[in-house]
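Troubleshooting: if your tokenizer reports a length mismatch, compare your output against this known-good record of 250 residues.
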Amino acid sequence: MLRIGQFLILLLSFEAPASDGKILHYEIDWGPVILADLEMELLAEDPIRSVKVNIASRGVTTWISEFQSKLEIVMLKGGARILDGTGKWGDSLSNITVSWLPDQSEPLVDLYRSKPRKYALTPLPPGSTGGTVDPFTPLFEISAKLAQGGACKGDYRVFDGVRRYDLVITNGGQVSLPDGTPSVVGEIGFVCDVELTKIGGFSARRGLFSSSEAEITRTVWFGNLRNHWIPVRVEVNSPFGAIVARFIEP
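Known-good structure output:
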């Protein structure tokens, strides 16, 4: 529905919760239509960091095809990272494990689907997954830069086990946070513009609501919650409207 897959990729690429184990809640909608709920928890206990995300359909999307997805990324001392995910869309099930190991030039992928895809994916260019990061590396780096007084910017080669894409993040400066931002994060934050370039692993079909990348803008607003910079609003705009994720008052 209206590029919701790409929106969730962007959202998961920027989640940066406080590291006290509390669960953060987001609501994802398309105008007045609620699409999904997202919950996330980050645990940081040296030498391991773990991010857990739950996302489930809500509202109109449950009429079309109910979905639920769980994702965990574990980062170990020494550079090893493990992504483990499960998903359910209607009566289809999937499981994926992606391992970035220090002695491997490219990540290892173990993917299971209960049903084959009904559409083709764009091919992954040979060697394109080498030197990639998991979808959560940008969040840690951007959050850390803001905490240290730096700018919200960076270039990232991202791979989630299926989709390979580049992110270019550009600093938009300090701004007043959008109306409706929970009061616990204050009134002043940072805005970041995001450019996503598809490399491979995306749907090759053209849907009714498809747009070219030139027609899409992606913007993230960061606010300070308990001395951690988190995205309080993520917005993807296309000719067919905006899909928005809003941080919900804890």
